[in-house]
Design a protein that fits this description.
homotetramer; 319 residues; alpha/beta; Glucose Oxidase, domain 1; 2 domains; nine-stranded mixed β-sheet; 10 helices; globular; KFase_sf (chains A, B, C, D); Metal-dependent hydrolase (chains A, B, C, D); KFase/CYL (chains A, B, C, D); hydrolase (chains A, B, C, D)
């Protein structure tokens, strides 16, 4: 699984589209610029009965959350509870109130989260040409703050690739392309419009939570796989944000080249597409399969983590 | 500031309304039950031009976030950055991608957040009659999970008490009542409808952030102050959720009795009203003052912290 | 590996020695009372050339430290470094000093550490009869503080069981008894005196660090195994402290009964023997094998963690 | 309190002694090289009756530990306790053992601790000429590991400046020099020998713990103050390590120049003297005043924090 010596992301993406400077030299939200107030209203126009779904996965679970290799699960600690009052660590407030309080530690990109555009880079340059050294000691460019300040609101389309392929979940390393997305949409009788927020379900996060898949050596997620055509399609469709139920939104390695996380380079760093990873899509997907409606109002607002590389989010989808 | 010996919350609230069992013995979301799908659509119906505001405060700031006395500020740590790659701690992925990654530690109720209904109690009993011992080692009843699973979505009304009183921010320990809220609404030409989510602006969080107020000994926030009438009004109006720009959503001590955080007992524990605290309302308020429209679509979805007493949120308000 | 239904620690240890109340109803340091000033000097009297060894394992390593199942590795984060100064997060002090600063999170019992006597219990009762509820929200009895205040200083004897059995490390689940300790001492030509601090080397921590052993499902450490005679021997020998290079100082399960961590009950809870776990003994052992001297001055002083169940330590051994 | 524009540490220390390369280009322990095995035995030779003192301050206290401005106190969290078992979060081990477990977060330099030689620098260069960029993302040169591996063991001399000046504690910003140290030693009838580890008591940490002093704006510790003569004296006396009961081992600002923490530059960075800060010396000092013996065996072994800038320690002093 080592990359061809000669092949680098710089060479691979030499002819791929790039939106640096498109929204000005200071832009830090990239393709979210496509999500105008008009798109917010277009998203609301899809709502029929007001049923609401939240797409965040639980964090700091007792068993340990699924996380991308190299990270470690978020943790939850009680600071105050009833037993702590009984043992003399805490005293009731005047009048008699007692309280439970707790602490959470985890990666800024714990659980369901949005990546900042500067989260990954190559050739020492982030989204929009910012220097990689701007990440040192905390993001001073293209961090999560401008994205969290703006929110990600518009029309969402769920593409249930797993169901489309007749499986509970895609297999390890299984891939698909934008052509598959279009066929899936056709089968679901939903239209991928320009500026739609794409929610792609592989069943993977559910399979991890259920223990049917696990994270170990040679971890290789299913997901979208790179082609120049795919990148051009995202660019032409002006896709503002990509949401999946995998840990990294794309297949881990490119099958041919062995390059890793190529779409983080092609879509995030070069086009400014905002990635939301580890979404919980199974309940929503079951509902969509039942009523045959795969579009809705999508609203995500990651945590405003100062200088953060990402922010946890619990996106809302309303049908 | 010590409570009258004879006065306790139990006595004070003996005749106050209580909604335990109203939504079943297992209910953990309380007044959010008022937010039906119908209310979600009612919220959307208020939207005119699709302009979006996010109401979270930044967390893990370099200066240290404002937190209620007894808590401590959230912290942000870089795990990987460009300099770490240069110093040999990290190696580029196959193809050349590098990454920034980071870690956040903080209270589950860090920054803008929703309280779980079991966060505070008296007489050893939480919301809906759950035992206080259910908080031990992690919330097993009335934690934040059911609220985070559901989301808080509906029609929001901003009540700008500070502007109504002609001040940039209320003073330390300054109070107001539901009558003030109604007068403020009248002055703003907005209607508080049954089941409206109330957003109350005091200017306080902005004053803390700007250093005009500070947290020290004898800290005493401005805010709503208890009366039986006020509790009855919240109950009759079926207010599902109370959002303010103070650290604890109410004046810290009751002026007469010295009792502390009485509305946490009267509204949260007894009625199941969900509190969202430390919201950033100044930008939204300036916009509302400019266009004279104080209602909108409100959507909050706190983090799904397993067993948590609360969850951080970055609420979205759309006009 | 499930325990016999009928067998419990209470029954198993019904006739085993117990030192509760021996040093008074308030005692929290147990067998460390054997380490009088006289024993400190006896330890020093063993020193010949002043060569010094430190027995702590590295913590917060990049690869992740070995920890007992259910815990997770300590983590290290930079707060300030040169690159952070260059990126504007920090400013030089008057005169020009810059600084690196960092943060560590981990279990109180991270890396090499001493257990508090109240760390484990059965029948709702800790060492010396303290109630198990005294652990709630933080140790109020038999925590690490009194041990850390006193220190563990005396004559140390290294018993290199691995070398004695001619192996680099004991095998998974391999056991030995106090008779083996005595034979090993004889072979090493060192005497186990009353009140000696016992350092037992199995080679296990080194094997974990080298990747020759790993922590996974069905983890089962080699180590001492329970018998009534062994407990009596520890009691009669007045062993103040047991130090090993395994994660839990004893074989994980009793071979016959399947009971878990029986010596934590028999030696720690009942006799007040202080356990130091995860020591790094390989370098010391090589030196002892070279000069055939297995005794020395031992000095450990765990961190003074308020209300802690344990404290990390970097014990010193001087020959 | 701003530095003279023209004055920098580089100019101030242009003629001061410097021990870079003295112990080789790779040396990371500096003046600890003076602590030979001979010095270890010399330290032991001072011991008369074996009485033992531990010099660490408690960490993660409920009230919040004293820390240098810019840091924040260590925190302690229970992970498991009896109440957590009762509430179903944990289950007894086979046989019936239950356990308390806990987590600690804090600066590597929390509580009583040793600084790594690379902790502070100027002119982009650490101890021994290592590049400041070697601190990026974790210490790769002159971190705490080599010091923790070696330990700090030898003859300790307590110099009780506070008692010498007839005060419970020195005043804010009060200074003293090496001449004062020598006079104090004379008054105490103890000799400062070459290679002695110096423990200097100001009473400050005790005053902070008792609330008689506090950390706020314009914090200014008492302590040693810079002169070229003082630096030469430390060099000629081959002082390996400086231990004090202040947060930073020296007066915060140089009275004349306003330069900050000059001895960190002159002694730590240039001479390789290892600093141990925030020691608890009051109990030891009272004992020394009582028996008029101010020397003893000193043994400190900081935590082996990988890549750390420092490590917590609980030094032992034996008389």
């Amino acid at each position: 699984m080592s990359a061809t010596d000669a092949m680098t992301l710089g060479r691979l993406l030499a002819d791929a589209p790039n939106r640096w400077s498109h929204w000005g030299a200071d832009d830090e939200v990239g393709a979210l610029n496509y999500l105008t107030a008009e798109e917010v209203k277009r998203g609301m126009a899809t709502v029929r009965d007001g049923r609401t779904f939240t797409l965040g996965v639980p964090i700091a679970t007792h068993e340990g959350d699924a996380v991308f290799p190299g990270r470690w699960p978020a943790k939850h600690f009680m600071v105050a509870d009833k037993a702590g009052f009984e043992n003399g660590h805490w005293h009731p407030l005047p009048g008699g109130l007692e309280f439970a309080d707790d602490y959470v530690t985890g990666f800024a990109q714990a659980g369901t989260h949005c990546d900042a555009l500067g989260h990954m880079w190559f050739d020492d340059t982030l989204w929009n040409g910012f220097a990689a050294s701007s990440t040192n000691g905390g993001m001073t460019k293209a961090g999560i703050m401008p994205i969290a300040e703006r929110g990600i609101v518009g029309r969402g389309v769920l593409l249930d690739i797993a169901r489309f392929r007749g499986k509970p979940a895609l297999d390890r390393a299984e891939t698909f392309t934008h052509h598959d997305l279009m066929e899936c949409a056709r089968a679901q009788a939903v239209e991928i419009l320009p500026r739609s927020i794409l929610l792609i379900r592989t069943g993977w996060v559910g399979a991890l939570a259920a223990g049917r898949e696990s994270i170990g050596e040679n971890y290789w997620e299913p997901g979208l796989t790179f082609s120049l055509d795919l990148v051009r399609w995202f660019d032409e469709m002006q896709i503002p944000s990509l949401v999946t139920d995998t840990l990294a939104n794309e297949t881990t390695y490119e099958p041919g080249s062995g390059l890793m996380l190529v779409l983080h380079a092609a879509l995030m760093r070069n086009l400014g597409v905002v990635f939301t990873e580890m979404a919980s899509l199974d309940v929503l997907a079951a509902d969509c399969a039942a009523d045959r409606r795969y579009e809705g109002f999508y609203c995500a607002s990651p945590a405003k983590v100062s200088k953060g590389t990402g922010g946890s989010a619990n996106p809302v989808f309303i049908k």
